[in-house]
TrEMBL record:
The lineage of its organism: Bacteria, Pseudomonadati, Pseudomonadota, Betaproteobacteria, Burkholderiales. The keyword Hydrolase applies. This is Phenylacetic acid degradation protein. Keywords: Hydrolase. Belongs to the thioesterase PaaI family. NCBIfam families: unchar_dom_1 (TIGR00369). InterPro entries: ACOT13, HotDog_dom_sf, PAAI_dom, Thioestr_dom. Residues 33-104 form the Thioesterase domain. One of its GO terms (molecular function) is fatty acyl-CoA hydrolase activity.
Length: 124
């Protein structure tokens, strides 16, 4: 997250929001946000949301995710809002909505993701 310039905006049980400002680090050849950066942002937000509900002594790891890219944007920043749909003992199902915030505060849908996390023993 530090390399990409992302920052945590908010954390609550089952909910995490992360911001990603526009920079060369997260763009593709046409100047728009790269899909890989959007996917990473969604994966991180939803993964951290799942981690907030993981059983004591457990960590989470992504098993799979599916993402739909809705629109391309330049400038401003992206916000990924991760949300836990169901938290089980072994699997946690999450979603993440990625939106673009323009310089005037306008918000537009950018991507939607659904994710499956598995709980694993914490090793640190």
């Amino acid at each position: 997250m530090q390399h990409l310039g992302a920052r945590i905006v908010s954390v609550a049980p089952g909910e995490v929001e992360i911001a990603l400002p526009y920079s060369e680090r997260v763009t593709q050849q046409q100047g728009g946000y790269h899909g890989g950066a959007m996917g990473a942002l969604a994966d991180i937000a939803a993964g951290y949301a799942g981690l907030t509900l993981a059983p004591e002594g457990q960590e989470v790891t992504t098993v799979e995710y599916k993402i739909n890219f809705l629109a391309a944007f330049q400038g401003g920043e992206l916000r990924a809002r991760g949300h836990v749909v169901r938290a089980g003992k072994r699997l946690i199902i999450t979603t993440a909505e990625v939106v673009h915030l323009d310089d005037n505060g306008g918000e537009s849908p950018c991507a939607l993701m659904q994710q499956t996390l598995a709980t694993v023993n914490k090793t640190y």
